[in-house]
């Protein structure tokens, strides 16, 4: 299968997830209201977006692990003479594992995004629980720490003079997830977390008329 098509398949849900986390997601929410009336609420749209991003990060991390294993068996997946060559990056034995435990970066990414997916899915189902806000902070700390890992991996790519498209997609997913956790905290602080926020606002507007 064309690897560029697969890459597009990863880009689309991350972009949709990011849009759902912003005010621009209101238009998408309005389109989804017919199927799910609860999508009228900003918090539900936000958590749906975060789930999409975390899930995509998990899948793309699994994909990079599969590519690493495929290369170790003597195969090739997306080798290229251009700067974009995931085979050259993921097939480099000196850089495709972490320097402390020797674990594949793809496996580490799966574990990290799996934990983020657990957080976003749990908070999405029980947003008013006492632990929900604390879990969101954990997610923000995790994705914040992920920036250091991204910087290390990008330094490897710079040294090799090659870029792994799928690794970059995982990096972008982490950055978008960090934004999502940060904005969720802002929604808490501004009192936009409850489902009835928009309904109350609309009701106030009608009363004023």
How do the strands and helices of this protein lay out in sequence?
Layout: H1 3-20, H2 25-32, H3 42-72, H4 86-90, H5 105-125, H6 132-160, H7 165-189, H8 197-208
Helix pairs in contact: 1-2, 1-3, 1-7, 3-5, 3-7, 5-6, 6-7
Descriptive overview:
The chain is an all-alpha fold and about 210 residues long. It has one domain (about 5-209): de novo design (two linked rop proteins), CATH 1.20.1440. It has helices spanning about 5-20, 25-30, 40-70, 85-90, 105-125, 130-160, 165-190, 195-209. Helix 1 (about 5-20) crosses helix 2. The longest helix is centred in the N-terminal third of the chain and has 31 residues, at about 40-70.
Write down the overall mean pLDDT. Answer: 85
**Strand residue percentage:** under 5%
Which term fits the overall shape? elongated
**Biggest beta sheet summary:** none
What is the CATH first-level class name? Mainly Alpha
Q: What is the chains' assembly state? A: single chain
Secondary-structure arrangement, i.e. CATH architecture: Up-down Bundle
Structural domains: how many: 1
Question: Remind me, CATH topology?
Answer: de novo design (two linked rop proteins)
Distance between the first and last residues' Cα: 58 Å
